[in-house]
Amino acid sequence: MDISGELLIGGKARRGTSGEFYAKKADSGEKLLPPFGGATKVDLEDATALAWAAFPIYRESNLEARAAFLEEIGKNILELGDTLILRTMAETGLPRGRIEGERMRTVTQLSMFAAEVRSGKFLDLRFDAADPQRKPMPKPDLRLRNVALGPVAVFGASNFPLAFSVAGGDAASALAAGCPVIVKAHSAHPGTSELVGRAVQKAVATCGFPTGTFALLFDAGRDVSQALVAHPHIRAVGFTGSRSAGTAFMHIAASRPQPIPVYAEMSSINPVLLFPQALATQGSEIARKFVDSLTLGAGQFCTNPGLILAVDGAGLDDFIATAVERLRQVAPQTMLTAAICSAYQQGTAKLAAHPKVTTLATGSEAGDFQGSAALFETSGQDFIAHSELHEEVFGAASLVVRCKDATELDIVLSKLEGQLTIALHITDEDYNAAAALLPHLENLAGRLLVNGFGTGVEVSPAMVHGGAYPSTSDGRSTSVGTLAIYRFLRPVCYQDFPHSLLADVLR
Amino acid sequence: MDISGELLIGGKARRGTSGEFYAKKADSGEKLLPPFGGATKVDLEDATALAWAAFPIYRESNLEARAAFLEEIGKNILELGDTLILRTMAETGLPRGRIEGERMRTVTQLSMFAAEVRSGKFLDLRFDAADPQRKPMPKPDLRLRNVALGPVAVFGASNFPLAFSVAGGDAASALAAGCPVIVKAHSAHPGTSELVGRAVQKAVATCGFPTGTFALLFDAGRDVSQALVAHPHIRAVGFTGSRSAGTAFMHIAASRPQPIPVYAEMSSINPVLLFPQALATQGSEIARKFVDSLTLGAGQFCTNPGLILAVDGAGLDDFIATAVERLRQVAPQTMLTAAICSAYQQGTAKLAAHPKVTTLATGSEAGDFQGSAALFETSGQDFIAHSELHEEVFGAASLVVRCKDATELDIVLSKLEGQLTIALHITDEDYNAAAALLPHLENLAGRLLVNGFGTGVEVSPAMVHGGAYPSTSDGRSTSVGTLAIYRFLRPVCYQDFPHSLLADVLR
User: Fold this and answer.
1) Rounded Cα distance, B87 and B5, in Å
2) Taking CA atoms, what residue in A is nearest to B252?
């Protein structure tokens, strides 16, 4: 399948004429053909009007048909074969193995939501039988089901060009819920987006759903994105990206005449707490696993371990010594985009130059478009005093906070913002100390791990990929796992309805 | 039990010293003793600090103990006997039968949440078994439960001094979820609030929960309310009241360093659609039931039928003739407060003076503190052109919109804002026309009724008391029924936890 650089609207492709941009090869900055045209206001109006028209039909679609549609998308993605793999590799700089794995994850995720749709559990059907004889008032017949919110705007993530992009977790869960989806493609992988978008569009046609069920827009700037979030026909937003962009979307959504939910997954430094006995007995082993997690995929994961918290002592020294040794051997890796690479270099340079921060180690020297891993250290006292040290540096950089005692560590914890994950490294003897911290940690993060690292997010029913702001905009939700479908649903109660007016599932 | 006018904080009563106000007899404006003292900043800090300290203990409380606590509150409310009934009657002007019924509803609601707590269903426990042999990566052990959000600020409603106030639906569902509750008493029924507050406080003590599990604050102005919503220890808000106050809370909550959810139930005109065949065959009967619903409790219900939509014709004329006749016989009723009464009189006067509105009927003349029912008419065209006619007039006023044809009625429907309820009056022959409207109506309202009126909200598993903005701040939720508990929960995933660190329910 060829990439045309066109928008996908209403079952067709059309050239966007509001600006033009190119994908770039991640490892060289070289322009990749063809040019992509940005959506105009007319394109946006067309896409949203079609989505709005598709909504009442698509949301009432038979569950089996909807599940088959999700699977069809997966099949179509696989059929793109190496055309997709090679384009994604070029646009993101990620290696073949990673892209193939992510493709499998994307397809599996679609199948998981298909199974969730078939189960019907997400409808939360409830029936309260009537009791006409009840005194003082007769009891009505009440039936409840969840219905889809409406068309959803999805903003793909740069760091998951398949699993959190055009047919990724947000789109899959919204489509599963019965919501038409309009994706604004990430400008870092527009060719990948178009290929996958065509796979979705083809599935819409094959399954006979209204053409407005899916659209793909490109944006040469930011106008399309903001207009999408503000558009009255858009009823929810799924986003993975920066804190600034996510927070801007939250404000746009809250200021609409009719506010809508924004599910933004934004910013997390994923603290790792190393407890004394774990450090004393397994410091080196933990350090090796830590460096492996930190440097996986050039550190470009939302769950990357960006903060190490421990109390001063020989165990921490051992941990650092091993981590430094291992990290120095890590080869630099191509980053997703020149902008991400530049932000990473600025972030690490800022840490290196900070008067209260020591650079412990860096990986071997990075070439253009590459990021080199980096490990820094500061004291508990300085971390507490300098909130700029709490900010995420997206990439393979981490900061060790050496606390003078457990009390100082507690204060450090009290200063943390919301997180996607918090990891505890413990042995039996640390359990009591860990248990005492859990209530606070549970308030901050959606997932707590013992003796592991947050990278490698399982796609399954018990997963939570969420957490208090700013890790996400809404800590009541998850963007990974089956629970993600509930973000796009709301309950409706039907009182004393004749059977013929009820949806099939409520009869 | 005597009413002291004191705040209830930390298991004790203390005098608020930030301003003073009195309850007033609803039917005379006469001051009722004692004076109530407004909470100071220190009182607010104490109450929130105690709630925050109580939170980790209360949220992990044994489910049976928590259920028993909710039942104990109900028992204590009943034990207040006529002291409560008489005070509530004086403060609200509502008759004994209504107050006794509402007390029963309040106690039943507490029992319903007790049963929900015992069932444990709200925890949404999920277990994904580990698979250490899985390739390429071992599968971790994942366990999920819902945890409580944190201390909740509850703002009681003026129109449900028991069922939606200190121990009403918001407080009961938040306590059921495991959240400490700080209630800001409604200034229209502070004595009622204190009595019920003492019943809750006594139950906290009896059940051995931390004293910070519950607090009751009075506010002589608005500062305490706004400071509560902005306070970092408050993690969610439950509110029933005006659109302006609810929207202000939404903005305060969204602008916090850490935004929190606001569940505000605000404003709804609850459209009633009269279909042609129903009008032709049952117009008079529907009119009688309509007037009964409209004038119940002086029309002071969130689900009061404030808008009648129908196509012009003889059936509509019959409906109006019967409604006019019946409404003229309705005696004026004491309203909840002088401010509500004044707003009602201004609202009806504005409608009566509107150049595009005809006054069809009013009830017999109202005395001071009373509201007299009122029925108005306008055309579909004028309703479409005048958005001020879409605003809620809280009380027993309703507006008939006479549409020239079904097409104009569709346009009227397209202009409506979000609603708590929409009622359809239909016979078999209207089913096709009704079915065509359902997708749009479902987007607007949380509850759709056939051949009934929205007043009389059942407290049960399938109830939805919610709807699109501005009927509520969050159309994904309900403030009545068992589903209300989910507003105060969020999921947390535990990965590879040793059993001894897991909560009992997850082992």
Assistant:
1) 13
2) A254
How distant, in Å, are the alpha carbons of A267, A274, A310, A383 from that of A412? 18, 14, 10, 7
Token pair belonging to B309: 């939509």
B19 neighbors B37 (Cβ within 8 angstroms): yes
Residues 6+ apart with CB under 8 A from B473: A259, B246, B247, B249, B250, B262, B263, B264, B266
* Distance separating alpha carbons of residues B304 and B299, to the nearest angstrom: 6
Residue in A292, A391, A396 with CA at minimum distance from that of residue A340: A396
Q: Do the Cβ atoms of B25 and B91 come closer than 8 Å?
A: yes
Q: What is the pLDDT of residues A54-82, one digit of tens each?
A: 999 999 999 999 999 999 999 999 999 99
Is the CB of B142 less than 8 angstroms away from the CB of A463? yes
For the record, the structure tokens of B338 come out as 């002088």
Q: Where are the alpha helices (DSSP H) in A80-122?
A: 81-92, 96-119
User: Span B176-190, mean pLDDT?
Assistant: 98
- CA angle B456–B462–B464, rounded 5-degree value: 60
- Name the residue facing A126 among B442, B461, B500 (closest C-beta): B461
Instruction: Provide the strand spans (E) within A254-373.
Output: 262-265, 271-274, 307-311, 333-334, 358-362, 370-371
Contact: B496, A452; criterion CB under 8 Å: yes
pLDDT confidence of residue A232: 97
- Which among B431, B452, B483 has CB closest to A498? B431
For residue A326, pLDDT over 80 is answered with yes
Whether the CB-CB separation of A212 and A54 falls below 8 Å is answered with yes
Which candidate, A219, A19, A13, places its Cα nearest to that of A227?
A: A219
Among chain B residues, the shortest Cα distance to A125 is held by B462
**Measured between CB atoms, which of A140, A261, A446 is closest to B493?**
A446
The dihedrals phi and psi of A94, each to the nearest 5 degrees, come to: -80, 145
pLDDT tens-place string over residues B412-439: 999 999 999 999 999 999 999 999 999 9
- CB atoms B442 and A492 under 8 Å: yes
Cβ neighbours for A364, distance < 8 A, ≥ 6 positions apart: A328, A329, A330, A331, A332, A372
Q: Reduced to 3 states, what is the DSSP secondary structure of residue A99? A: helix
Q: What is the mean pLDDT of chain B?
A: 97
Classify residue B318 by burial, with Cβ atoms within 10 Å: 0-12, 13-18, 19+.
Answer: middle
pLDDT of residue B59 exceeding 90: yes
Tell me what percent of the residues of chain A surpass a pLDDT of 90: 98
Which are the contacts of A506, defined by CB distance < 8 A and separation ≥ 6?
A125, A127, A143, A145, A494, A497
Q: Name the amino acid, one letter, at A177.
A: A
Q: Measured between CB atoms, which of B254, B450, B491 is closest to A478?
A: B491
CB atoms within 10 A of CB A498: 13
Cβ neighbours of A207 (radius 10 Å) = 17
Answer whether B128 sits within 8 Å of A101, measured CB to CB: no
Residues A180, A51: Cα–Cα separation, whole Å: 6
Report the distance separating Cα A488 and Cα A117, nearest Å.
13
**Mean pLDDT within A459-466:** 96
Q: What is the mean pLDDT of residues B66-78?
A: 98
Q: If you measure CA to CA, which chain A residue comes closest to B464?
A: A493
Spatial distance between the Cα atoms of B180 and B228, rounded to a whole number of angstroms: 14
Which residue's structure tokens are 């193995």? A97
A56 touches chain B (CB under 8 A): yes
| E strand residue ranges, A277-407 | 307-311, 333-334, 358-362, 370-371, 374-379, 397-403
Q: Which of residues 404-443 of B touch A (CB under 8 A)?
A: 417-418, 428, 431, 434-435, 438-440, 442-443
Report the catalytic residues of B. 265, 302
Which residue on chain B is closest to A135 by alpha carbon?
A: B101
Phi first, then psi, for residue A389 (nearest 5°) are -80, -5
Look up residue A470 and give its two tokens: 């700013």
Could you report the predicted ipTM of this complex, rounded to two decimals? 0.97
- Which pLDDT score is estimated for B1? 73
